[in-house]
TrEMBL record:
UniProt-listed SUPFAM superfamilies: Bacterial exopeptidase dimerisation domain, Zn-dependent exopeptidases
Keywords from the named record: Hydrolase
Organism: Pseudaquabacterium rugosum
Pfam families: M20_dimer (PF07687), Peptidase_M20 (PF01546)
Lineage of producing organism: Bacteria, Pseudomonadati, Pseudomonadota, Betaproteobacteria, Burkholderiales
Name of the protein described by the UniProt record: M20 aminoacylase family protein
Residue ranges of coiled coil: none
Occurrences of domain Peptidase M20 dimerisation (ranges): 186-278
Amino acid sequence: MPPHDPILADVAEITALRRDLHAHPELCFEEHRTSALIARTLQDWGIEVHRGLGRTGVVGVIQGGSSPRGVALRADFDALPITERNTFAHASRHPGRMHACGHDGHTAMLLAAARHLSTTRDFDGRVVLVFQPAEEGGGGAREIMKDGLFERFPVEAIFGAHNWPGLRAGQFALKPGPCYASSNEFLITLVGKGAHGAMPHLGIDPVPAACALVQGFQTIVSRNVKPIDTGVISVTMIHTGEATNVIPDRCEIQGTVRTFRTEVLDLIEQRMGEMTRQLAAAYGCQVEFAFSRNYPPTINHEAETAFARRVLADTFGADQVIDFEPTMGAEDFSFYLQQVPGCYFMIGNGEGDHRSAGHGLGPCMLHNPSYDFNDALIPVGARAWIDLARAWLAPRG
């Protein structure tokens, strides 16, 4: 950024705020301190504030000129149930809770942009600042929409961003179409008949049935899903048994399914259900099969993604904007994109060299207890938000 950019004057204050958020992480729908801090900060800057959307969400509104046009910018602010391993001064003060995904940084970048936009108001229209709770599994985007986000604050488009470790700090990555997968969970309960481990013929053992299912599920993607489509079935938990000489009477299998297309998800759910019921019957077990669809795939809109690429390239240089390789991770920004056109893009967080003394021994990766957001991104992200908002609300010929 140019050394005279006015955003740089606020960096120290916003960095301190970001580190305060990092030190006081709150889990989904419990972000009362975080919500209050965001609301108070916006109000101190003369920004119109609305609280309580999605339980703990905060929406700020900055009106410039008289145009009814609007654009939304979103940041998430919940933490993860992880015990932090870092020992620097702003490490989490709450064991078992940590900002291990950079939502504190996302909030800081949007706050920095909000301050500048509120001061200048050199645009014609409305900038809607969406500070969202509960991205980490709570579906905060869905809940904030249920409370009338787009009905109360109509916008033409919405943009969101996530820091991305491993991508060069300050570089941007985006693509049209699917960029994050859907997130889905399954829970299978196999019920057999307990018996002594030395007398298996007197019981019905659910463990072999569970083993057969785990193996069988892997053939669904390899033999039922078209090779040009993408799908993941991961069994991540198997719970059964209490003693080495007892055949258990039940076994639970849990895991996740990820796809980029609803049609692929429909096929996987159908085949998993069929295989579960038929294999359970073959092993003489009763079975319960539950499949939950959590987040839909995040699918960027073509025009809005092209717009974001153009603005980011104009501001930071074309060499700083690259194509994003889709991930099978999930993001509840997907709910917004089902209702309003928009784009979700990545900002490089670097390799972790920004961490000061006292960081954990692990890599600076998302959802890692040694992670920390790169504060050098605060002015970069703020400038991206400012230029995107101004460009969107610029007069159209």
